[in-house]
């Protein structure tokens, strides 16, 4: 099997949208991670904001984030992939000049954020774990 190294132009499609607003031109870097100890991906989006996107596009916790990627390396794995996240934090906010801010948008799957916000404060004696989950959800 021939292995092609990544080359400039391999990325056919790349868009980042938050709450259905395309912010691709403001994106400096996108890092998508999947840790061995957590069963879900997470994402960091570094942006340079010159239009006050935080207010204009309502960038806040639980805002919907969609990342679309497509590759053209000439393999059977070439395809388009759409990844859905929600914002769980905005960090590293720095004013670059009087018109621009840079910051990092931290994203995770909606299920992760919902799990972090759910608190169970009672005991469930004589119940199996699957029964507990059904009664809490």
What features would you describe in this structure?
This protein has 137 residues and is mainly beta. 15% of the residues lie in helices and 45% in strands. It contains three helices and seven strands; from the N terminus they run ββββαβββαα. It has helices at residues 53-56, 110-117, 129-136, and strands at 11-18, 21-22, 27-34, 41-49, 64-71, 80-97, 100-108. A seven-stranded antiparallel beta sheet has the order 2-1-5-6-7-4-3. The radius of gyration is 19 Å and the shape is flat.
Largest sheet geometry: 7 strands, antiparallel
Order of helices and strands: EEEEHEEEHH
Which structural class matches the secondary elements? mainly beta
Please report the number of helical segments: 3
Unreliable residue runs: none
Spatial extent as radius of gyration: 19 Å
Gross geometry: flat
Strand order in the largest sheet: 2-1-5-6-7-4-3
Mean pLDDT: 86
Distance between the terminal alpha carbons, to the nearest Å? 47 Å
Extended strand count? 7
- How big a fraction of the residues is strand? over 45%
Q: Considering DSSP H and I runs of 4 or more, what fraction of the residues is helical?
A: 10-25%
Task: Please specify the SSE layout and strand pairing.
Elements: E1 11-18, E2 21-22, E3 27-34, E4 41-49, H1 53-56, E5 64-71, E6 80-97, E7 100-108, H2 110-117, H3 129-136
Antiparallel strand pairs: 1-2, 1-5, 3-4, 4-7, 5-6, 6-7
Would you kindly provide a brief summary of this structure?
The chain is mainly β and 137 residues long.
